[in-house]
User: What shape does this take?
Amino acid sequence: MIEIASIIASMLIAFSIGSNDTSNSFGICIGVGTITMKRALYLLGFFVLIGAVLQGQKVMKTVGGEILHVNLEILVLSLIVSSILIISSNVNKFPISSHQIIIGSLAGSGLVFGASINTMTLQKIVTAWAISPFVAFFFSILIFAVMEKTLSRLPVFEIEKTLRILILLSGIILAYNIGANELSTALGPVVYSGLMSPLQAALAGSLLVWAGAYLLSGRVIDTICRGITKIQVYSGFAAQLAAGLTVLLFTQFGMPVSTTYCLIGGIYGVGFLKGLSTVNIRLLRNMVLNWILTPSGAFAICYGIGILVLNSGS
Amino acid sequence: MVSLFKRIVGGKKEAEVLSKIREHLSAIKTSCEIFYIALEKNDIELLKEVCELEKMGDTLRREVALLLYEGAFLPVIRADLYNFAEVIDEVLDTLEDTSISYTRVARELDPHIKEMCLRVAKINLKMSKYLISAFDALGEDEDLRDKTIKIRAYEREIDIIKNDIIKSLARVEVKTYWEGKNLSDFVEDLVEISDYIENAADLIQILNVSLR
Assistant: This one.
């Protein structure tokens, strides 16, 4: 019974990723009319599955196998707390990183239940969280500079045509990353506690991501579409591709990193090129606060609940 | 891979919009040609074709609007493309107005004024040709500035001729208020065509920088 609760919690996280993060990958494509919502959903399902199957195991191994040895108590507590936090933040439209919640919850649960935590791996993950937005920042500067030297010199209708294809391409990269990185972070503990095989987890997780996107992502995408004319497609694409490539790079090293933080890093990169006046300092401050409070909050909640459980048991 | 992307992304609507705008621009050129010939030969019957082309232009503008509304092109350039379709429709509307007002003054038109009007009509025709090549330059690796500069230069030339026409008109004796008004309307309409063509050329310049 308790095993099933863990699997359900992990699948709820997958569902939540689908409902919320489809907008990260195909929101702009749908908003600018490059593809229809229906086509975007097919592409999302396909590329999330490909990402989870081809490269997901690297992140699954880091999260489920390297941070700590996941036993059933740790698994249940961390995944249930993570799923509640992720779903409630999505419902309340409060942007938080699912990676940080899962890792924070795992560390908190592990500590309270006496598991030996590999601080080296944890340190690597936190370093990856810290440097990934900066990598995206530099990638976006590089991409934007290359675009200025190549794409910008084409006739305007050629630029438009190429941009439509490139926006779709970067959407596909982000969808692939959802499978290879974000979903795999949620599936890692379930796989490494032996409840599911990597393939079973990838198939079920991708299906749930797709279901979440199919049933609930319309609202988020609609919000993006309504403000789409304000989006600078040209620079927006540079930021999006930079974020996609950064997550892809960190996935190679098995590091679970947030697409949203990389996207913000990419946007700041383009903003930096266009002049510092475009940089929103308040947003940057909120991002740093969020970055610190999210994993430590998840850690504290799991640790606190664990203490309560242990005390009630004794 | 690129063809697969093209199949997913589509591009049919965009091609259709461009084809309709080209058809619209071509209707302007044809109307300018017909108007010039009709003015030269004093053939009022020919001007009916200008009215037909104007109706066709209205249909084309509506079709372009619908395609843009359905999602052709990236949103950042949709508004500029629709504005362009509207402005070139204004060119055709003004050509129709000029044709109608000409039918009212054809018999009384002073030969000297007519000769100046013919010069304006000829420049309008040249401008319409440059407008087509300026629009085509948006999709090809051609120098756009060269074409829009020529359009502006022609427009200035028409402004000079307009002043001469007005000076000559002041010396023409009119028998009734309506005769004078019709004459004035005709000249105003005729010189206004180039203003709209110049506006269209300005929009092409805006389109050219909108995505860079």
User: Anything to note?
Assistant: The two ends of chain B are 26 Å apart (CA to CA). The helical segments of chain B are 2-9, 12-41, 48-69, 75-105, 111-137, 144-171, 177-209. The longest helix of chain B spans residues 177-209.
